[in-house]
């Protein structure tokens, strides 16, 4: 009877449903990151901010906001055991992912980059399963693999170069690994710390590097107003508020299950890129998007112990 009781429930609990909705909110916020980064960094023909400045300055600005927030909420200091996971969270979410994607975005369109980043849910789920000692079912992993295969296949189809990988694509693939580390350890900490405090502490401990990095790479050319607006979004939403919802969602719903919501992120990014950047969206893209959304729906119904 005990074994049956442990394996029968398939539907998400109330907390897991809340986690999924918060995770979706975080994904919507993050979906604008690539288009906004492309707008802020510019193109080879019309360069704006450097990728290094964007990564360092957005983290520095969010870190200063975090100090005010931590003081306002009277946040306690992290426990001794939490400092190492916080450092790894910062490595992935503050440095690795933003830096690599910002450098790459000058050389690829947001539509292209969004489908490359689309395999992030699989790496996040793998990191979550390891860190949280969760055991997804075989069906869950098949859905994760199928969804990731769809977005990778789409990226190759649209690249026009077969199996060849461009240098910008390599940076984006490396960014996914850092993103999985940041999401995984951030989700782990959110189970014993307030989710909003996790990203705030990660940003605060990064300030000794991000503030000098931003100062040393400050733009020395005249920038368009839209460039600064895009940077403001990256600093306040992509680097800060988005993680409030995302880490709370991971804590409530479980990293492995909630990470599947990320599968819709590349197609949301594409939809945002059309009006913001003038990029195109065709029937093939829509078809792949619908297929991935269907896989996400099936995957979240699979049991995760």
Automatic annotation (TrEMBL):
Subcellular location: Membrane
Keywords assigned: Membrane, Transmembrane, Transmembrane helix
Membrane topology: Multi-pass membrane protein
Domain EamA: 18-147, 167-298
Keyword Transmembrane appears in the UniProt entry: yes
Residue stretches spanning the membrane: 20-40, 52-71, 83-104, 110-131, 138-157, 163-186, 198-216, 228-247, 259-277, 283-299
InterPro entries reported in the protein's UniProt record: AA-Vitamin_Transporters, EamA_dom, EmrE-like
Family of this protein: Belongs to the EamA transporter family.
Protein name: Drug/metabolite transporter (DMT)-like permease
């Amino acid at each position: 009877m005990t074994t049956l009781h442990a394996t029968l429930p398939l539907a998400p609990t109330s907390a897991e449903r809340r986690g999924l909705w918060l995770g979706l909110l975080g994904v919507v916020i993050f979906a604008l990151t690539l288009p906004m980064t492309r707008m802020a960094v510019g193109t080879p023909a019309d360069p704006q901010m450097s990728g290094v400045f964007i990564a360092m300055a957005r983290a520095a600005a969010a870190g200063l906001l975090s100090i005010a927030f931590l003081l306002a909420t009277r946040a306690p200091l992290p426990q001794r055991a939490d400092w190492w996971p916080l450092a790894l969270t910062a490595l992935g979410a503050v440095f690795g992912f933003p830096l690599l994607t910002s450098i790459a975005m000058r050389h690829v369109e947001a539509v292209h980059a969004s489908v490359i980043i689309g395999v992030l849910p699989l790496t996040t789920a793998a990191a979550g399963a390891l860190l949280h000692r969760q055991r997804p079912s075989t069906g869950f992993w098949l859905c994760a693999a199928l969804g990731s295969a769809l977005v990778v296949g789409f990226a190759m189809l649209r690249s026009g170069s077969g199996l060849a990988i461009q240098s910008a694509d390599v940076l984006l693939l490396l960014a996914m690994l850092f993103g999985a580390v940041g999401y995984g350890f951030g989700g782990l900490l959110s189970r014993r710390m307030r989710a909003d405090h996790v990203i705030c502490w990660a940003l605060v401990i990064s300030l000794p590097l991000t503030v000098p990095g931003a100062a040393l790479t400050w733009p020395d050319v005249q920038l368009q107003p839209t460039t600064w607006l895009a940077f403001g979004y990256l600093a306040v939403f992509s680097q800060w508020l988005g993680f409030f919802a995302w880490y709370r969602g991971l804590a409530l719903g479980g990293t492995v299950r909630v990470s599947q919501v990320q599968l819709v992120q590349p197609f949301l990014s594409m939809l945002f890129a059309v009006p913001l950047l003038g990029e195109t969206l065709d029937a093939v893209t829509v078809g792949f998007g619908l297929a991935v959304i269907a896989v996400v729906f099936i995957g979240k119904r699979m049991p995760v112990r």
